[in-house]
Amino acid sequence: MVRPDSSNPSRHLALFALEAVVIAGLFWADINHWHHVVVFSKTPYILLLGWLSLRLRGLGWRAVGFCPPPSWPYALALGVAAGSLMEALELCCTQPILGRLFHQPPDLSLLAPLRGNLLALFVVLLLTWTLAAFGEELVWRGYLLNRIALLFGAMPYRWPVAILVTSALFGLAHFVEGPTGMAENAIDGALLCGLYLMSGRNLWIPIVANGVTDTLDSLLLYSGHYPLG
Fold first, then answer.
1. Burial 133-145 (b: 16+ CB within 10 A, else e)
2. Could you tell me which residues come within 8 angstroms of residue 189 by beta carbon, excluding any fewer than 6 positions away?
3. Is the dihedral of CA 22, 25, 30, 36 positive or negative?
4. Which end of the chain is more exposed for a tag (fewer CB within 10 A), N or C?
5. How far apart are CA 210 and CA 229, in angstroms?
6. Separation between Cα atoms, residue 58 and residue 71, nearest integer Å
7. Contact 210, 83 (CB under 8 A)
8. What contacts 91, CB < 8 A, 6 or more positions away?
9. Which is nearest to 43 in space by CA: 119, 143, 114?
10. Nearest in space to 144 (alpha carbons), one of 71, 75, 196
11. How far is residue 121 from each of residues 112, 126, 132, measured CA to CA in Å?
12. In this structure, are residues 2 and 57 in contact, taking their beta carbons and an 8 Å threshold?
């Protein structure tokens, strides 16, 4: 896994500060609807930033867990089970509670054209397994979680702090879904961080879990069975 550049800590901190500024700028541009800066999603931009950061530190994606798992059947089975349980937890527990707390369901109006539209479902599922499952896990659990934990070296609280910060940012990244949607995604982000660490920091279990959860959401929206309102 990623280790601090102990030979030049000032360079390491300067690089992290530059990365933080770029990410903050992307969030600011997206929240302020600068669509000419952030086209469609922040994920590809942060993915490129993560790749550059790893390269400058002499690393690759394998260093943060994007490599074959010890057992493919185990990884796929656990990913499917975890994603299904996350979806059940969201629909049966966290969403009703958060909906009452914020007095509104998650705002999924951008996905309204999905209902009954088979072509739209195909496009959404394609994006689910590329931009969301692979892209988000490489960015949030692979790159950012490790990058933040790296700041704290061997301190015992480095992973809890990294999970807290990363999950909060993951929730904020879904600001278009309103407060309920942001809180839901922050919880999902924390659960995916836990899966990542539990699997020995291999990304494939959270990739599959993320894809399964979003696939179930898409199918429920397509069929008109998503519990809104």
1. bbbbbbbbbbbbb
2. 140, 166, 167, 170, 171
3. negative
4. C
5. 24
6. 28
7. yes
8. 227
9. 143
10. 196
11. 11, 8, 15
12. yes
Structure confidence by residue, pLDDT tens digits, 185-227: 999 999 999 999 999 999 999 999 999 999 999 999 999 998 7
Q: Tokens for 57?
A: 């530190």
**Cα separations (Å) of 36 from 45, 177, 215?**
13, 21, 29
DSSP assignment letter at 40: S
Give the 3-state secondary structure of residue 94: helix
Residues 6+ apart with CB under 8 A from 13: none
Residue count of the chain? 229
Q: What are the residue ranges of helices labelled H in 57-109?
A: 72-89, 95-102
Nearest to 143 by CA among 32, 11, 75, 42: 42
pLDDT at 6 over 60: no
Nearest by Cα to 151 from 1, 24, 4: 4
Tokens of 170: 């993951």
Phi, psi at residue 60, to the nearest 5°? -135, 180
Give the pTM.
Answer: 0.94
Which pLDDT score is estimated for 193?
A: 98
Using alpha carbons, select from 17, 86, 103 the residue that is nearest to residue 53: 17
Dihedral of CA 32/22/164/138: which sign?
Answer: positive
DSSP-H helix ranges across the chain: 9-31, 43-56, 72-89, 95-102, 118-127, 145-151, 158-172, 178-198, 204-223
